[in-house]
Amino acid sequence: MSAYGSPSGSSSTRLSAAPLRVGLMGLLGAGNIGNDACLEAVLRHLRSAHPDAVLDAMGTGPQQLKDEYGLDAVGLYWHHEKEEQASRGAAVLLKLFGKVVDTYRIPAWVRQHDVVILPGTGILEATLPLRPWETPYSVFILSLSARLFRTRVAFVDVGANFIERRMTRWLLTTAARLAFYRSYRDTLSWDAMRARGLDTTDDHIFADLAYSLPPPAKDSVDPSLVGVGVMGYHGTNDDDRRQSDQIHAAYVEKMKQFVRWLLDRDRRVRLLVGDENDRKVVDEILRDVKSSRPDRQSWVGAEPVRTFVELSEAISPARSVVATRFHNVLCALKLGKPTVSIGYSEKNARLMADAGLGAFCQSVRSLDLDLLIEQFLELEHSSAELTSHILERSISNARALDAQFAELTSVVLSAQGV
Does domain 21-205 have CATH number 3.40.50.2000? Predict the structure, then answer.
């Protein structure tokens, strides 16, 4: 962590009567359930521990941030709303011009705040396709302008990985280096930032912010119900993007086959998503069931979920879960569900190992259907034993976040120096 003083334009000693101005920034409000769960966790703390603070946001879904969370919000990218009505050629020009606009717009927003928080999410990682001039550039401008205006930037309980692409790595690592405060959701992220040349000596590791959210009301478990979390997966950031369609098609086909196998063994299926982009995969699986298992269409449900709370309610009746999205897996573990992870990055494997389920992981790129069936059967066989251990770890993770929020208040949101 690095220390620096009060924002430009304020006195060196903050008046106690002046409300704290806190901005929340990141890939928020755009339909990613995991990202919004992290936002919700931090908002719950701010509104409870700092009820007088003035809160607003800069995110990828400003309207959702206004409607769902009651925040004054602006878009992270200037060009997003403009390009919706533009032709393809005009959209490219708008994106280019938007980078120029954002170079001035983001600092203007930052300057209005005492503190800017990036709540959780994999904001410092590039496990999925990501170009340097997208989020990495915006986060870099945020941290750089915050230094200039003496606004405190806090990367709170974020995820990170080692990034191969040099420019993306430099932008995100420099942004983290310029921040006032950093903490991570796991040792993988802490190690990755150290490997990227950052001094992480004073940075702390907690658990994912979503563990702090309250569980749903207890529901009776249907022993035949399996939660199957799918993803609009098209490869990682280091894959050849020309192969994205083939990667996606291979993944979806195997998930279709697995759902058919479940139905043939008298299991009911509840399809789960973690992002708006996942719904197309749900539709493909439903069409496949309709044509291949028409007599069991009613055995497959796909309730629309938009928030982590709704996701928790959808998972709650399931006996077990098989999922791809990181926060689908996390949500299942939080509820004590025996889970198989079909992961797209090392963070999935670390999360599962932390819960004592290291043997129940696969990589989505090398997904082996026979092995998945074997893992699932073993999961059900050991269900009672696994559930007890998973719940114990979930409770421990939730308690660990008490320390994260206490540190956020004492180090970042303290009146001293703000």
Answer: yes
Tell whether domain 222-396 is in CATH 3.40.50.2000: yes
Q: Can you tell me whether residue 57 is helix, strand or coil? A: strand
Q: What is the pLDDT of residues 288-320, one digit of tens each?
A: 999 999 999 999 999 889 999 999 999 999 999
Query: β-strands 181-184, 300-301: how paired?
Result: unpaired
19 strand-pairing partners: none
Pairing of strands 204-205, 181-184: parallel
Residues 6+ apart with CB under 8 A from 41: 119, 120, 209, 210, 212, 213, 401
Which tens digits make up the pLDDT trace of 232-284? Answer: 998 876 666 678 889 999 999 999 999 999 999 999 999 999 998 999 999 99
* Longest Cα separation, the chain: 71
DSSP letters, 344-356, are SSHHHHHHHHHTT
What is the DSSP code (8-state) at residue 51?
T
- Cα separation, 411 vs 400, whole angstroms: 17
Q: Residue 334, Cβ neighbours under 10 Å: how many?
A: 28
Domains 21-205 and 222-396 share a fold: yes
157: left (phi over 0), alpha (psi -120 to 50) or beta: left
**Cα separation of 76 and 62, whole Å?**
8
Token output for 336: 């004590």
**Which residues are registered as beta bridge partners of 323?**
229, 341
Only one residue has tokens 């692409």, namely 165
- Compute the radius of gyration of the chain from its Cα atoms: 22
Question: Would you say 118 and 42 are in contact if contact means Cβ atoms under 8 Å apart?
Answer: no
DSSP state of 124: B
Domain residue spans of the chain: 21-205, 222-396
